[in-house]
Every structure is written in structure tokens, then in C-alpha cells.
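R.M. (postdoc): so does anyone remember the format we settled on? I'll just put the C-alpha cells first.
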């Protein structure tokens, strides 16, 4: 995840210290994040995302490009997403075993089918 932050720093010519000062996110938070000892909480990640004008999921999506205007890569295959054993939720990194991945897949499939049915019932304009 920190690699995504580093890409943004490089792209915009900023330093972690500048981001810290302008967002109010402690430089120690960013330093511990870089070392892999800490993952910023959701509110801090949101401040960083807002600063760079990227969606907060930018930091957890492995294939997302920096450009926020290019949505051609947005749709992700659920099976490929679930190949990752590490996901971020509520600002914390969680490791998923096979049982957890299957539960997540089942829940998401249920939501997708519900959305599909709901969209079928919408009146056409």
C-alpha cells in the first residue's frame, strides 16, 4: 500500500513531510507505514486520498492507475480480486484464508444478484 503513496509523491513532486504538514497526518504515521509496521486508519487515508484527489480504494487496489479520469481499468474480476490474501478494511490490513475468501465471494455475489434484479425493476426513461 505504501508503494501507491510513494507513486503519488513522485508524480506530484511532494515529500511525505509536505503531505503530513498539509493533511495533519503525523509524519510518524507515514514513517511507520513506509516501514510496514502500521497501516493508517481510514480517516487518515481519506485525508491523504483527498489531498491527491484519488479515491481511497486507490491505496488497496493493486492494478489501479494514478489517473482518476481513466475508468477503463475500474471493473475487476471478482476471482482475481479474491486471489489476494490481504485486504484493507476500516483502515486495517486483514489476511483472508480460503474459507474467508469464499464467504466474501458468496456475500458479494448475493449483492450483485440483488442489484441486477433491482435494476430490472427500474422504469425505463
Amino acid at each position: 500500500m505504501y508503494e501507491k503513496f510513494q507513486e503519488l509523491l513522485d508524480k506530484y513532486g511532494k515529500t511525505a513531510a509536505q503531505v503530513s504538514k498539509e493533511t495533519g497526518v503525523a509524519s510518524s504515521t507515514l514513517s511507520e507505514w513506509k516501514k510496514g509496521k502500521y497501516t493508517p486508519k481510514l480517516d487518515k487515508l481519506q485525508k491523504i486520498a483527498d489531498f491527491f484527489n484519488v479515491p481511497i480504494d486507490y491505496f488497496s487496489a493493486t492494478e489501479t492507475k494514478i489517473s482518476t479520469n481513466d475508468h477503463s481499468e475500474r471493473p475487476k474480476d471478482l476471482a482475481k480480486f479474491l486471489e489476494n490474501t490481504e485486504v484493507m478494511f476500516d483502515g486495517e490490513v486483514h489476511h483472508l484464508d480460503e474459507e474467508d475468501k469464499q464467504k466474501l465471494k458468496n456475500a458479494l455475489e448475493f449483492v450483485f444478484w440483488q442489484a441486477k434484479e433491482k435494476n430490472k425493476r427500474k422504469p425505463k426513461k
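R.M.: ...and that's the designed sequence above, right after the C-alpha cells. Also worth knowing: The mean pLDDT is 75. The beta strands are 86-89, 92-95.
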